[in-house]
Amino acid sequence: MAAWWRTSPQLRVREALLSAIAGLALAVVAFWPLAARLGRDVPLDLGDPLPQSWQVAWGGHALVHQPLSLFQSNQFWPLRDTLAFSDALLGYAPAGLIGDGPVAAVARYDVLWLLSFALAFAGARLLARELGAGHGAATVAGIAFAMAPWRLEQGGHLHVLSSGGIPLTLLLLLRGWRRERPALVLAGFAVAAWQVSLGFTLGLQLVYVLSALALVALAWWWRAGRPNPPRRMIAATAVGALALALASGLLARPYLRVLDEHPEAARSPLTVAHYSGGPLALLAAPETSLVWGGASAGVRARLDAVPEQTLFPGAAILLLAVVGLGWRGWPRGLRLGLGAAALVTVLLSLGFETSGAGRLLPYRMLYELAPGWQGVRVPGRLHTLTTLALALLAAGGAQRIAQALARRPGGAPWPPRAALAGLALVVALEGAGFGIGRGGQTLAAYPHPTVPRAPAGLAGLADPLLELPARPPDNRRYLLWSTDGFPRLMNGRSSVEPRLLAQTLAAVEGFPDRGSVALLRRIGVRTVVLHADRAAGTPWAAWPARSPAGSGVRRERRGSLVVYRLGD
Known about the structure:
Helix content is 51%, strand content 4%. By secondary structure, the protein is mainly α.
């Protein structure tokens, strides 16, 4: 172990850049033609990509116009801390400075989506290299982490896909200590803070991982006879950890206020249990998986929340990881540690049930006792850590297989590079972004629906606004369209609907009757926009027969929009 610790490979900036470029190329090819339709299409569906495009755009807008109140966004007006109703993606806010309006917001989101795969690939690959894997085996690790089959179902969740900061943090901290470079340690904690700023879905996991690794390091230091590490390294670690704790605390404040002011935002045991997949989830691959989508259709049909419960890690990745447990190129403690990490995190990712044997699953203890976990809705997001541990072990397995083939007795030896290239291809195909089309049984490209354009006449209306109808698919569109000027909206979209919005919508089903108009004026709404082309099947479908006469409301038709001006 001591000899391995002192052996830190040469990793140059050129290799890091090439890793990122290779990861981006992999994402572009796997999810083609998304890269050719930036600003027009979004990956997977028209669900969360629309409000997440708005989130990044809002971050850039707020940096310029209200840098001291980033969380006071234009959704869910007049509530406060409204950006904290979901993972805020604040770490991407600088990207929001580029371009304006909905088309730029979508293009920006598409680019960040592809770059998230590039960073995940590069981070895992470079971490595997730092641990001692060769170039080819480390590439297998990068593909296994960035392209794990279960991530295909997370295509609409940028905050889940943006996991590259986790291996990059571990790489910088490990390399900094091995080479006694305080600057690298500080950089590692800076990357960790950036990962937390993207959201606590993954940020909380990283904080706990770093805490667990600190305990492991402390135990190793004690068993080694308590040697004296360089003071500058202790100082850098202390400063970095303190800065991370401070940044995490500041970022957590608005989320804690939301939980305090909106009890409906709490993740109850029933909610967590609903999104917990149990062991069955490990056999469920996404429908969009070329290799496993059709084979696991029967398993998916038995799940309650498919996007959150498809956790199939990949057969090739799992087999390589098992082989990697026996690769002696790594110390036994490292191999066992990675295996234990994979086992613990996969058990935690199963969540728990509120009755039966599922009550005893270990995630329940984490939920009940560990700070922060009661704010997490989907236990399966912990599969990110499982995937990272398996990807690193898969690198060891690939290295072991390549070495065995190279010295195969009784036959022509396989060139190690060819063997590793073949293994990388197998892992990539298993996680490729092509699969069974959601509308049928024919092979199709990974879904990339076209984003609806904002209707003419929507921009420039006096705010605050209420847009009707206000179902979740409607609100997602309204948020994206609001990037043209960011008017204040009562509408908004998150995993929790604030009571004020729910109660208001229930009270204005008869709009524009006098009671509805009076209520909205008391709240402060100045304009109500009815999207007539989306009103069918809603309480406002009969709007032509509802005259606002006598209420002081002016009604105007603008194409598909019916605009009601309530005045001050």
